[in-house]
Amino acid sequence: MKLFKLKISIGTLVLFGAAFSANSLAAQGLIDGFYSNKGDVSLTASYTGASYDEFYVGEEKMGPVPAHEKITQDIIGLYAKWGLTDALTLVVNAPYISAKGEGTPDPISGNTKESGFQDISIAAKYRPFRAAFEGGKFDGITALGFDIPGGYDANSILAIGNGAFKTNLHIGGHLQLNQGFFTTLVAGYSLRGKTDDDFNVNNGEDYDVPNAILAMAKVGYAGSKFYGELWVDHQATSSDGVDIMGPGFAGNFPETRVNYTRLGVSAYVPVTTLIGLSAGYGTLIDGRNIGDTNFFNVGVTFSFNTQSTAMAQ
User: Fold this and answer.
1) Domain residues for 218?
2) CATH number for the domain harbouring residue 120
3) Which of 80, 172, 279, 293 could form a disulfide with 141 if both were Cys (CB 3.0 to 4.6 A apart)?
4) C-alpha torsion 20→25→26→27, nearest 10
5) Half-sphere exposure (Cβ direction) of 54: Cα atoms closer than 13 Å
6) How many other CB atoms are found less than 10 A from the CB of residue 83?
7) pLDDT tens-digit profile of 169-190?
8) Residue 179 carries which DSSP code?
9) Is 98:112 a contact under the CB 8 Å cutoff?
10) Which residues face 142 on adjacent strands?
11) pTM
12) Whole-angstrom Cα distance, residue 186 to residue 190?
């Protein structure tokens, strides 16, 4: 079953490039319904390319993007999963983002390019129960995670993140049939702290980033030679944020209410027992204070078992 576990890790990563906007890159795709066995480790490198030339100002879509006209992002993702036990998996994700605007410099930062490591995400996913039945099994999902922001400037149209420390709680379930078909549902809540007033927009005082309700659903097939999924990802922020150009907005982009619904597909094929390749595509179908983004993703995963390696030595 090593191939099965390998493809799940890369299938999850395909979601990571989906989770960005002008001021946030969420890690909702970090939590899926598959668990690594004890000692199993997978390491993934991926590339995501994205662009948008229209932007939701509040809930109204407008174009082109203010100042920049069009924004492109190149994202290099480094992702790891480690099975601490059969029911407890540790997940780490570190995306490096390079963003570029094609128009005039950003009205707040004065830049036409921004790059750096975005939020470093760490999560522990625990399976509280497994209910087996004749046709398959149903696993519970719980997870606790943290997003640690890098040293980037958070407050601009071109910013690669919102700069807030986040605590993410998740709960859900995963139905796996013996034929390989599966369904996963995960709900979450993201508690978000304050972010620095990088450009003295708020008289030098830090300000709150709105908390968010998260939801993710997948349907797909997981076999020994192929993995494919259709997914939908949703975020709804709390009501204490502001809209771009709305009441209370003073150029403080991390304080805006960022809502979205995204739809995508991803697939994985093993090359050997140790290496597999993946690809995916996604698009934003509805949003609020976010870029109307399309993106694609490719990746390669390497996997091994630490217990087997230790025994071989």
Assistant:
1) 2-312
2) 2.40.160.40
3) 172
4) 100
5) 14
6) 21
7) 999 999 999 999 999 999 999 9
8) T
9) no
10) 126, 171
11) 0.87
12) 13
